[in-house]
Here is the input.
Amino acid sequence: MKKSFHGFARFLSAVCLLFSAFAASHAASKNYLLYVGTYTNTESKGIYAYRYDAKSGKVSPLGLAAETASPSFLAVAAGHKFLYAVNETHDYKGQSSGAVTAFSIDKKTGKLSELNEVASRGADPCYIALDKSGKYVLVANYNGGNVAAFPLTADGQIGEASSVVQDEGAVGPNKERQEKAHAHWIETSARNRFAYVSDLGLDRVLIYKFDAATGKLTRGESAGSPDVKDFFSATLAPGSGPRHVAFSSDGNFLFALGELDSTVTVFANDAKETYRSIQKISALPTGFSGKNDAAEIVIHPGGKFLYTSNRGDDSIAAFAIDRASGKLIFIERVPSGGKTPRNFAIDPRGTRLWVANQDSGNVVEFRIDEATGRLTAVGEVAKASSPVCLVFVEE
Here is the structure.
């Protein structure tokens, strides 16, 4: 009986290994569309598409996918049928607002067909995300200093805003950049009960209640505890200027990227969305004295590594995440392969990191060592005028 059991176990193990090998091979053989959002100018006209062969690593340009004004941030719906873009402008049809545009995706050609467009309800929208149900898009309006939620129809169109909330609070000390609220990022929590908003002007990651049934955003109430300043926010050091945020997969830690001081502040989630700062670490070289604006923060799908981009130092910084404490350990800093690295994305297999270098107009690929988190430059894979956002779509 024992021999029979062990024989079956070995057989099952072999089957699992074969299945894993097949799954890895299947994933590696897939093709993807890479969409690049840009700031439009005399050369750039909107969103550009490229085909990425994951098996060979070849990237083929498909040209202009959609002509649209300054699509500076993109989001893809589950099922990869629809793509959404903010149009980072401040005058939409006579309103002090930008726009949000919905597209359908033609996976054969990479072309995007516009479905509709609505006002973002605030000037210069700079970030867009879908809630966890996929029924709403949420937008951060940078110069509007507010955030908005929009319902989506079954055919992918965007409805009029279900909620608009103005960020409020004391501004930071940087008189040039923190003269008022500047909403820079918004995402919903894992259970879709809250919306987190990174506000550069207020040095806070605000936490709004989110009703997934109605699309309403509301401010929370104070915890009333003398040792917690605000129950529904994570507060950074003055002058940090939080830009984007990343969460550990277990939800125990929040990592806020400070654009103005080029740091990552780590917060521990003690309970009920109360956050306690446990670490602040620089993404810049020791002794760096030039101008730098941090731009993007991304956690590797495996959860062990975190990466940030530096505009000025023109580099990508890599950190290891201590899974128990949440604290970061610096690994390395590598040149971005261009000028002004803004957004970057990790490919769906978790093996490559792609960087959009805005001012040099190129996209550069790096190989990720999945054991150490270190990056090795593969080289330039695409040219694009003023690239600012990258998203992958499975064909």
User: Anything to note?
Assistant: The longest strand covers residues 59-67.
